[in-house]
Batch of 3 targets.
Target 1
Amino acid sequence: MARLIDLFPTPFMISRQLLDTGLVDRLRHRALESHKDDNARTGLLSHTEMIDPGEESLFVEVAETVLPEITTFGEHMLGDSFNWTVKEMWMNVLERGGSQFMHSHANSFVSGIVYLSELHPSTRTIFSRGAGGSDFVFKHDVADDKAGKYNAERWMVPEVGPGDVVLYPSYLLHGVPPNEGERRLSLAMNAIPDRLKSFGYEIGLTP
């Protein structure tokens, strides 16, 4: 009997309603009231300043809520238990017609998105395979082919709502398609473990 095996899968975690309504409302207010800079590619997407989660009680609360999930996710991703630190956060305001180009996050291991508003289906986060890599040079790409987890180039986050959190390896390319609905609010974060050890040497990481 033949058995198909998922070889080297990529971890991805969704935590439903991890943040309660009160905390989400306070974050929404903070996102809208904060000074924001326009995205380099469009004025319909803006970002708050980089936030040190330890400098404001609101973000301390967010970090404390999310860290247990990050710790669990990190064990799956790296195979060991670490002390994790959320080293930075920022909030995003995406207006109707705006989008976020594909990108990844440098200098971190686990990244996360906290959704702060109801999402129009057009703005569900898209994750993409990296350009190049170990795929075959030739590919089959026609209108009626059957896309699945082994050959699809993109994957869309399932329906999410306010208070939901997703965690993923920081190297994954991701973006948001053009917004066909109302204003979209989210909070992004990056996290690092306290150390990495390998065959006799150890690297310490501090934010």
Target 2
Amino acid sequence: METRELIRLSDVSVRSGDRVRVDHVNLSISRGQIVTLIGPNGSGKSTTAKVVTGVLQPTSGDVLRKPGLVIGYVPQKLSIDHALPMSVLRLMQLTGRYSHQDVMKALDAVGIADLARRDVQSLSGGQFQRALLARALVRNPDLLVLDEPVQGVDFSGETQIYELIGRIKHERDCGILLISHDLHVVMAETDNVICLNKHVCCTGAPEQVMQSSEYLSLFGPHSERTLALYNHHHDHEHMPDGSVAHDGHAHGAEGHHHA
């Protein structure tokens, strides 16, 4: 692996019985880099994140991790029993024992140190997402995996959280895998975008991906955020099980054409 590379997925596929969850996915994440996974519901984004974190083992392909890699994970959903009061401090200790000083430092890093003793149930959507981010940061991770980190947050809150994620990247020099259903706010800080629909449809800088015909076909041709400045052409089709047919064979290659 390169010196700053943290993780690399090579030709990774995940199957559940006859169903293909992801098909021949390649990606790498290095320190100081934000890689954003985008794609429609059911496209394999969360499955890919689980492979990265080691929660899920691929059916085929290779996962290469930096030795001693520490990963902080913010899940897409976290169910909390509202009948049981839980403080932010208690939330921070659910996945490990950390010193009070380290917990407060992580809460301060995301701007909610003053809410440490507040009940989690009373937090706004943005405050709760910051608490989850702090819970990932307290591990002092090399790599942050953020699965839809702005769920339940209003637009201005989204902007603030994305700005915070960018600041964390610069201050900690960590790598970040960000899963998003939308790209318009993350453009400023995202280094590489991977458009996923079971397989990698297209990849590149945000401006390139947002202008590709594949992105347009997945997210709608009338999006005000997209301009077809270059075309991305498939030379494959999807099989019923979700795999990719290419020249008569099922795998994950695709063709690119730049106008």
Target 3
Amino acid sequence: MAKVLIGIIMGSDSDLPVMKDSAKILEEFGIAHEVKVLSAHRAPELVAEYAKNARDNGLKVIIAAAGGAAHLAGVTAAQTTLPVIGVPINASIDGLDALLATVQMPPGIPVATVAVNGAKNAGLLALEILGVEDNEIAQKLLDYKKLLKTQVEEKNKKLEELGVEKYLAQKK
């Protein structure tokens, strides 16, 4: 079994429908990961234990998602020297509360933060962090970005061929 490199943690299992996108992109790149529910408020001792042992357990990056008060990423970052990527979850007020709670960290406790519900980008950012030292991952990321460019080119070609109205009608 491959060594787990990335931990995906979330404050509640209700975050899983969003966070599956982190797991999915990591799977597409062949990167081993684990997914856990760890609440900064309901089980802070479990979060502390996880964060403090993450490096010894082989993790390289932690992705932490939470909605509402959204303290999971910050609490995790305070207890590890690993990079922590926060994913604010849209649980209320369009996720603005979670975004602010995740991004507004005090000096000394950095948390990289992606968009509200930006789980896929969190997975990609974790891969970019790993790709700093792993040329195979870096090459897969280059290939992925080439694929994105090709998709944009194909959409432009189709838009030119069909025109705006037919293009939009086809997308419905």
